[in-house]
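Reopening this ticket.

The earlier resolution said the output was attached, but the attachment link was broken on my side. Pasting everything inline this time so it's all in one place.
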Amino acid sequence: MNATLPLVGRDLERARLRDLLTRGGAVVVRGAAGLGKTALLTQIANAAGEHRVLNVRGIAAEADLPYAALHLLCSALPAELSRLHAHRREVLERAVGLRAGAAPERLPVCVAVVELLALAAEKQPVLCLIDDAQWLDEASASVLAAATRRLGPVPVALVFAERGERFADLPSLSLEPLGHAESRELLRSAPAAPLDHAVLDRVVAEARGNPRLLLDAVRPAAGLAGGYGVVPLSCPEIAGPSKTLTPESRLLLILASAEPLGEPVRLWHAATGLAIGPDAAEPLETAGLVSFGAWVTFREPRLRQCVYGLASGAERRLVHGALALATDPQREPDRRAWHLAHATVEPAEAVADSLARLADDAGRRGGLPAAAAFLEHAALRTPDPRLRAERAIAAADAHHAAGAVDAAVRLLAVAELGSPGVAARARSNRVRARMAFDSGRGGPAVGRLLTSAQDLEVCEPRLARPAYLEALGAAIFTGHVDIVHAVLARLATHRPTGSDRLLEGVAQRCTAGYAAAVEPLKLALKTLDNDHEDDARSRLLACLVAPDLWDDDTWHDLTRQELAGARETGARTILPYVLTHRALAEVHFGQFAVAESLVAEAESLTRLSGTPSFPHAACVLAAWRGHELPTFAESSFENGGMARTTARYATAVLRNGLTAYAKAAEATRDVLDRDGIELQGWSLVELVEGAVRSGDLTTAAAAADRLSERACLSGTEWALGVDARSRALLHDGQAAEDLYTEAIDRLGRSRITPHLARARLLYGEWLRRRGRRIDARGPLRAAHEAFLAMRAEAFAARAMRELLATGERARRRVPETSSQLTPQERRIASLARDGRSNPEIAAALSISPRTVEYHLHKVFTKLSITTRTELHLVLAACADD
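Inline output:
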């Protein structure tokens, strides 16, 4: 089941469905089309844990076929169907057409369905989702409704989603339209381009709280031009009613569709210029097409687009000309220029110049899509071929940055028709190189970025420095060392700006090593904070530099600013890069849930654009959580750069968490032979722990020395904290204890909470191994609780094993741990806690004793306990189950 809508403002509904998962039963999610019923069902399916999820969807074309929906359910449970009692199996198979014979009565069919679901729930609880239930055939609908009342204590939850009141006798959950604030929050959470705030308010008003209508109105980002434009739609259903309107009413309707703000004063000013009187509005309001009040709003956002699409080119030019005359050139010159551009088709330099000059103003209102649209129309209305080519290249660059690749390709073709000069060709080549890199991120594309920077150095020195930075960042990211050195070899000396200092610092980092580059890079990051003219892609390189310097505060601020800026401006091409950098930061700040949402957003964007994904953050997040690592798209990254280093670092984190120390050391041993900017310092930390614990003290000492050198040069609490923790592993006695306490103190003053928890874990392990079991419990308990809160499962289990080894009984878990148990596991654990034997539990839940034993084994593993007597401690949070 695929969700099409993000969920916003549905916290109570989600809580109700989560409770249904725990307790079983049935509920009907009811609401109009587009309110998010399918998205809610998808969310509960994703949160179902170890439930077996069954999906059934009503289909309008099958509504007259008896038991058509029930056939889908039986098809999903072939093994259980074969285990049914012979008579009930025959009844059910005759009902759904799998066996010849007369159609049975519905009650025997219902009894068979109840047994079928009970068999499916023997090994794991079942969640059955029935979407579009209003289109279920009558026979299936009545049987499923009756079955919900006969399931008893079987761990089965059924969720129906319908429009109307077909299942009125079942418990219901009604979805209401979103409020204004929730609608705006939905737009912020959706991968949509930015819109002018006034236009956004008008769209929210027209959508009337319907999430699907709201998102459909803003998804055609390129055509909306940040809120200046309207995307014309072909809607035959509007053509008929429009023919019955008077010419004045029809023209007023088109005028309203072309005015994006819904501002009545401007609309009636323009209408007066077209000799349209107030009487023309009455037929439109009577037909329910448009409401003329404090806002001029259509019945729904899509209707505005349909009306605009229905208009002829001449009608559109006429209404845009009237709107241009009705717009104050002093107060809103950008809106006036937009309407003037759409009122003409022939080239006109005055119009083109106005659009080009006002592109930045438009960008401030509607982000990159608006600026790109202004530049595109400026290019298309420019009479001079060379100037037309230059404007087309600028428009292509803006469109590509906004994620409109097709528009960028089209405009580059327009530029080439205009016989561009040498400088324009160099800029065009840079745009093409960017597009090639973003679509594939391979070696040839990185080489093209370098070539374009070299060309710009000859004819456009002002643009060469950002181009070199971009090529350098791409080469580091993909691991093309030859291109890194080629970029550095082309550096020229001139007055340093923020970007230049960053470039020079990175150059020293790559050629002279970490020690020589630390101070220049620190200065570059400080300068970059105040240098607002830096290219966005140049600043992405700074997102690599900050963690390489162990500067968690700058890393936090820089990634937060870059993410906010990319979202605000609609820079959809670089947004996946920025999301990945921010997700990596959130992992190291201990905000795993936030990192997971950022990773999902980045993956969604790359999937929509058809470009390679960025698995770096997902890989590191999985490692900290103790899960197997996702596979890198190695062909996209050619096994190089940040991808390779991140994969090895994540492998080491995972293996250290699982106490496979030799494998952790092996994964990161190569960092002793390299000194790149690809976040290799993190790997040194993992190498020290893995090497010490696997007995390779020589390697551990070499890695610790390298780490100490970096930490002293960096001087941050993060760097000095992990250094102290790593050196403690190589010491004993009071020296080791002093280093552990120093590490905990320093990391406690940093943002790096996962490493703080690991410092406490290592300290507790050290104390326990020296017989100080009571002293060890404090740091081990703090580490365990921190890991549970983050859901760092492997490290949490490691801390719990150490805690139990100190003699401490299992403590009450935080809610996150209790939620790791499935509803069936919680039921079985609760009964076992109350002293019931396996056969007694089996009889109470209608399952086999072997199934009880299987679930109890999983409960003990998840809760890190070994006996039933410990269950009363860990199940206190869910005793009411």
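Reporter confirms the inline version is readable. Residues 359-380 form the longest helix (22 residues). The beta strands are 25-30, 52-57, 126-131, 156-162, 172-174, 290-292, 296-298.
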